[in-house]
Write a structure and sequence with these properties.
Catalytic activity: an alpha-D-glucuronoside + H2O = D-glucuronate + an alcohol
Subcellular location: Secreted
Number of strands: 18
Oligomer: single chain
EC number: 3.2.1.139
CATH class of the largest domain: Alpha Beta
Largest sheet: 8 strands, parallel, barrel
CATH architecture of the largest domain: Alpha-Beta Barrel
Strand order of the largest sheet: 7-10-11-12-13-14-15-16
Bound molecules: beta-D-glucopyranuronic acid
Mean pLDDT: 94
Helix content: 25-40%
Enzyme class: hydrolase
Protein name: Alpha-glucuronidase
Low-confidence stretches: none
Strand content: 5-15%
Amino acid sequence: EDGLAAWLRYARVDNAKACLGKLPSSIVTLNATKGLPVYTAGQELAQGIQGFFGKKLDIDEHDERGKPRNNRPGKKSNAVTVGTVAAYKASNPREAAKVPELGDDGFYLSVSRGNALILGQNERGALYGAFRWLALLGQGNCSDFTLASTPDAPIRWVNQWDNLQDGGTHGSVERGYGGDSIFFWDGYVRPDLTRAGQYARLLASIGLNAVVVNNVNADPRTLTPELLDGLARIADEFRPYGVQLAMALNFASPQTLGGLDTFDPLEDKVQAWWDNITNEIYRRIPDMAGYLVKANSEGQPGPMTYNRTLADGANMFGRSLKPHGGIILFRAFVYNHQTLNQTLDWKADRARAAVDYFDGLDGKFLDNVVVQIKYGPIDFQVREPVSPLFAHLVKTPTAIELQITQEYLGQQAHLVYLAPMWKELLDFDLRVDGKESRTKDIISGKRFNRKLGGYAGVVNVGTNTTWLGSHLAMSNLYAYGRLAWDPEVTSEGILREWIALTFSDDRKVIDVITRMSMLSWPTYENYTGNLGVQTLTDILLGHYGPNPGSQDGNPWGQWTRADSDSIGMDRTVWNGTGFAGQYPPEIAAQYEHIETTPDNLLLWFHHVPYTHVLKSGKTVIQHFYDAHYAGAAVAQTFPTLWQSLRGRRGIDKERYEHVLYRLNYQAGHALVWRDSVNNFYFNKSSIPDELGRVGNHPYRIEAEAMTLDGYVPYDVSPFEAASGTK
Ligand code: BDP
């Protein structure tokens, strides 16, 4: 098992025999066309049932009037029928009338005594229904049931930060930790796109419906004819799975690629250039989903270059896409990384940027523009409050941007199961107009009565057979899809299902991996930066190991403002940057005061002495020391827990070794984290650890004390990240 099949292994289930009598004996597809989702659904059902139970089913294709296309003799009675509601109506109007109303992409699934009916509101809905049933069968659940399910939000997209070419500072997938791009190589679309199709299959199986295939830091060359032809080939690989292709654009393309003397969004020739290129794209890819644009952010060009508003910029794309039914996801991640400087301006605060820049723009966007907002106001940290921008855009559809690739969260070398964090963010009640306003209901469109909205997940899979670089990290992709479909499912429920399908439904396997995974986010938070101080990682380069000293004094501005006696970013209105005031009044009031701010966000909102006493009765500094020790201690238990699964069903040698290697590494790196962060704050504050642990590690063998052939000691910067500076 190399991970390529992920949760779609279709491995034999434990009680296969018990199910045999309850399974259909054939598959009927309604009006299926090869290369489209209903056809794919038939194939998946055959493959899945054969894999799970060893039972081979024939596929009978029925035409648009419900008549068999291939009249096989000896037709069996029990069948699983799969198709769209419309196709079912044509052959079976009376039964079809009983099917409950479904929303876009929804499905109806009814299993009864060896017969199954899987109907989609559209073609891909049928495929989603087939995959849902297969997920249940794969857990050994072959009981009768009826289910009608419509996704909570229409936008369930994946963002890939793939570069056309290798040689960027981070290789060919920006913030990707699973190898090179599966789409691009050497400036072109790869000749062999097998992996693109396999990826689409995984995404469809969890209800995801579009992929932005190139980096948000977009290369204008994406729009050259050769590249567009290549993108059309990717779209062809996606189509059988109902996954649509979308593209990230570089705002300055009319100038850099098109040779115009401007990219001002209000110039007619610029609009005409985009209209034309958009037509060119749709000529090749008629079902293209739309665009994603990062503008005026981290050096990227945008409308503000010409003193135009962000709405002027977004609407320009909206206009070009409109005749084709496409949508534009315009990112809210707008901030000026050059002028933000805390040393010059005490009130400078990157967290404020999104609301400040979008202020006054609500209602000014065309109806096919969606604002894509990172979950927190800064940047994918281990704990952030929900972005207040969700509460400001009432007339404008929004999507939440989550990160499946663990950029600041251990880069897949650390186990961090993210569903519990996402659920907290999605469940958070922003109290807009004093009414219940949960993030999930804002983005789905329910709260403000909008049609569009949803989810964008930065996934960044690569050519590695494990997709993300780690087998266990795949639970995050699985959870992302399941939550985008239905944010009510529980983190633990998702996990148990994913484990059963990825490894096996062996009770112990499920329990142990669930336990480790559910512990993993709080554990990582504990050893990398707690109390809302953010992940104390290196900020200027890789965003990986500990480097608390790099957090302050640079314009990228994820600041802790730690000095010798106090720490935390004062974001209050009365004395700080005013960020707390960007929330609706009830929430603003809560964050404004130390007493009502939850401890886990204390240092996000307030600047306090190290000796400040928390609700728990501990001082901030002692909590820091203790939490880093506690987190690192839990990480030490992961390898042992995993080892208890050795030889269990589904835990094959290849994956066992791969996972064990990473967990051992994590256990070690957690100690490095613990000691660097603790030493750093000990050096700053000079307040000793009550338990005498910090700065005192008698059991450790220091690297500089070893005699090793071929190794040379050198000075490490920052020195706290090393032992004795070496
Ligand atoms: C930061 C990443 C950077 C991205 C940027 C973004 O470090 O690689 O380009 O976000 O989301 O987190 O645009």
